[in-house]
Design a protein that fits this description.
Radius of gyration: 22 Å
Largest sheet: 5 strands, antiparallel
Mean pLDDT: 94
Order of helices and strands: EEHHEEEEHHHHEEHHHEHEHEEEEEEEHH
Number of helices: 13
Structural class: alpha+beta
Helix content: 25-40%
Number of strands: 17
Strand order of the largest sheet: 8-7-9-15-10
Length: 392
């Protein structure tokens, strides 16, 4: 499956094209719009989120709410476009690039006249399209009881009590199969910051308020989980089909993301092999299984049947009201970095985008394994594989 995104932050609209999505999948547009709304939530978002109400307008690839196998194309309108159009056409060239943003290298690479031409496309606004595409992937995966979840581990220097997570997310965690697991999901979805620790959530909100008054920004860390996948997605035989490499690449393409680790990835160097590696057990009902998931569900570039568990770190947003030291590109004189309406903390939004990015990559590998053309054919191949696994 391939996809293409287009559009600028303050342009008339964002657009996307999906090629290779199978036919016969019932698409719930309300669900896609709900996913777009999830991306806009989270304490610390900027004024832009009170203006935009992202909704998808699908213009090809569906008939009677079902995918046809043809390319799917859609538009997400920018409601703020009318407010900004005249300003963007008349403003003076922006020449004081922001450290940490695409401003200066993009200006130099494409020989621009203003940083505006860079920041409009490099803006995280583009991720709305990827959330919509990820929603298509999640709709597909619902038929296979694959569930996606994200939650915050840390904002600034405030961390959650991870024992809360370990007590809630067991190896068979899957709200599609275990209704009690919805309680943990609801706790996250109803939190201002997608944080399952209420005490830490309150401290994070206070920190964001304080940081906003100081004219500064905050980053953070979050986990993204996909549960319900069979073993064998990805490949050990081809470097470009190794699933962890594909997932890491896609997650790193999200603005502000600076590091990606699977399972205990960030701490692997400090753990002995006998403590780190997930020992293999067998049960006639469960098949092969592990009691730990330090590998994050991937071994040798392939799923091993345990949940995909990824930890992602996002840096603070480069646009600060306080400003940072920079240089005027033309005069070379010292200056303060360009200021534009922006978030103080967008880590919860980055977590939602990461769910979608993970779903997209998993769908691509899922179809590599079970077929690409039609949902019924894919389902038959999947069921045959599950039966094969039961007989081993």
């Amino acid at each position: 499956m391939r996809f293409l995104t287009a559009g600028e932050s303050h342009g008339e609209a964002l657009s996307g094209i999906i090629e290779g999505f199978p036919s016969g999948v019932n698409i719930d547009i309300d669900y896609i719009n709900t996913e777009l709304a999830r991306r806009q939530m989270g304490y610390g978002r900027g004024q832009r989120m009170s203006i935009e109400k992202d909704e998808i307008n699908i213009i090809s690839g569906l008939r009677k709410s079902k995918t046809t196998g043809s390319p799917i194309s859609f538009i997400i309108s920018n409601l703020d476009w009318k407010n900004q159009k005249e300003k963007l056409e008349t403003e003076q060239d922006i020449l004081n690039p922001r450290p940490g943003h695409a401003d200066l290298p993009g200006f130099l690479k494409y020989r621009q006249e203003s940083v505006r031409n860079v920041l409009e496309r490099s803006s995280a606004r583009e991720t709305a399209v990827r959330v919509a595409i990820g929603a298509f992937a999640k709709i597909f995966f619902k038929q296979f009881s694959v569930f996606f979840l994200s939650f915050i581990l840390q904002i600034g220097n405030v961390k959650i009590d991870e024992q809360i997570i370990e007590s809630c997310i067991k190896r068979n965690f899957n709200p599609y199969k275990n209704k009690k697991d919805w309680d943990f999901v609801s706790m996250i979805e109803n939190s201002l910051l997608r944080c399952p620790d209420q005490g830490a959530n309150s401290k994070m909100v206070k920190l964001i308020k304080k940081t906003s008054l100081e004219g500064d920004t905050l980053g953070g860390t979050f986990r993204v989980i996909a549960t319900g996948l069979p073993p064998g997605l990805g490949s050990y035989a081809h470097w470009d089909r190794k699933l962890d490499a594909k997932i890491a690449s896609s997650l790193m393409s999200i603005p502000s993301v600076k590091s990606v680790g699977f399972g205990k990835g960030f701490f692997s160097s400090g753990i002995k092999g006998t403590d780190y590696h997930d020992e293999i057990f067998f049960d006639k009902n469960l098949g092969f299984y592990r009691k730990t998931n330090n590998a994050g569900g991937i071994e040798g570039g392939m799923t091993n049947g345990e949940p995909i568990d990824v930890t992602v770190t996002a840096k603070p947003i480069p646009t600060t009201m306080k400003g940072l030291n920079t240089v005027n590109i033309i005069t070379k004189k010292k200056s303060l970095s360009f200021k534009e309406r922006a978030d103080v903390c967008a880590v919860p939004s980055a977590a939602i985008v990461s769910e979608s990015v993970l779903a997209i990559e998993l769908l691509d590998s899922f179809m590599d394994k079970f077929g690409k053309d039609n949902i019924e054919e894919i389902s038959q191949n999947y069921e045959n594989y599950i039966e094969y696994l039961k007989k081993i």
